[in-house]
Amino acid sequence: MEVNSDHQSSEKETTEQDNSEKFSSIWKDFKLIMTGIMEIRSDTDKKGTIQDIKDGISMKGHTAWVLIFSILIASIGLNISSPAVVIGAMLISPLMGPILGVGLSIAINDIDTLRRSFVNLGVMIGLSVLTSFIFFKIPIFQDITPEIKARTAPDVRDVFIAIAGGLALIMALSRRSKQTNTIAGVAIATALMPPLCVAGYGLAVWEFDYFFGAMFLFTINTIFIALATFLIVKFLRFPMVKYINSAKRKRISQLASIVAILIFSFSVYEFTKLYQEGHFKNNAKHLIADMKKSGIHIFEVEKGNVDYKTKTIKLILYGNTVQEEKINFWKNKLGEYDLLDANLIVEQSTSTDIENKVQELTELYSQNQEIISSRDLKIEERGRKIKELENELHKYYRVPFTKISAEARANYSGLRTLSYGNVMTTNFKSTDTISVFGATWYDSIPNTKQQEEKLRIWLKIRLELDSVRVINNK
Fold first, then answer.
1. Which residues pair with 432 in a beta bridge?
2. What DSSP assignment string belongs to 365-417?
3. Is residue 102 included in any domain, yes or no?
């Protein structure tokens, strides 16, 4: 029995060892496959990437004009609220160059490129804001649109877009074979241009909240794109800029490190703040939804129910009055929604208030209906008068005299002249208009009376008139 037990134990150990070896082999194969798929260092053109980024930093000459025209197109797209026009402007805008230059120069300790990148970044911002300011300063282009409103404040999702976009962009640029479609896609996704246009709009209409909100959104996108560039350049181990003076190199390296730490710290701080704001608003949204499910009627106020800065949730209720106990019940549940530091403010509109509002709206509707009915009657009366005048005019102008005179000359060779006019006659009971033609004949015509009668009958049939008079103009 002991021999059999030892044999079974040995077989079990052998099976476990085989399974372990198989799993290890599968894991090694998986790692090998994933390494082949995800590895990017072997296909990186470091020297070419550095040169491409440096070449795209400058904001002068043709590049400056392309920037101005693209900003103008984007401003028009925002003004007419057309995403397609805004996207078209993003595709041709050269905004990425200085931002990539900042990230690259910090990563490789290139102080000259860093200085040049900041200068051109400032030029880029100045030209963009000035162009949009001039456009929106024109009074007919100052209406606020949904596309403009959407670019007045950053969201935590904008941070993720900027990071992912920056990573995709620097990877696309660092490939030996460039991918221009990736670069164009990143330009659209990160949306650097619309915030600059909205900043110009804010200055043009003296709405400084729009200006600062849009510039904050642009700054967030810029920082995280530069940060993503910095991280990838470090990961790919781009060569550091070498200086003859070792002390200068050390000083520059320290300066670049300080700038990188400051940018990274600010990025983390802003990301944390935006995440907390998004978390607060999302929790408040769940709270309001659950309160509605419980039977509480809440007015929807766009962006007015929740204010993160003051940590307040202001709700306006309508319908039946909600008891104070029920309101306190929801206030006590704030902790369950991670809203302990929030202040829930509830304002109730009584049923009387609602009835008064409905009554006011009903009366206003009735007044508007009376105005519309009165206006329709006036329009109908005016239409009738216009019809009568048209009939009167028709009586005067229904005879095509030029054509008739030509036909009469062809039919009556003895006709010397022909005149036409309308004569109004009355028997003091009714008034009528008679078409009167005056005719003169050549002396060679012996019987003018007979010719005049034939002419009268012809004119009556030809013109489809009830009565026609022909007189002899001697």
1. 425
2. HHHHHHHHHHHHHHHHHHHHHHHHHHHHHHHHH---HHHHHHHHHHH-TTEEE
3. yes
Q: Provide the token pair at 71.
A: 């900003």
How would residue 275 be classed by pLDDT, with cut points 50, 70 and 90? confident
At 4-58, the pLDDT tens digits run 555 555 655 666 666 666 667 777 766 666 666 666 666 677 788 888 888 888 8
Two tokens at 416? Answer: 């010397």
The pTM for the full model equals 0.56
Number of domains making up the chain: 2
Amino acid identity of residue 282, one-letter, is N
Could you say which DSSP state residue 308 is in? T
Domain-ending residue, one of 241, 267, 282 = 241
Residues 6+ apart with CB under 8 A from 122: none
What is the per-residue DSSP string for 163-225? HHHHHHHHHHHHBSS--HHHHHHHHHHHT-HHHHHHHHHHHHTT-HHHHHHHHHHHHHHHHHH
Q: What is the span of the domain harbouring residue 121?
A: 42-241
The residue whose two tokens read 């959104």 is 217
- Alpha-carbon gap, residue 428 to 342, rounded angstroms: 91
**Which of residues 241, 261, 281 is at a domain's end?**
241
What are 457-471's pLDDT values in tens digits?
Answer: 888 888 777 778 888
Positive or negative, the CA dihedral 323, 311, 211, 145 is negative
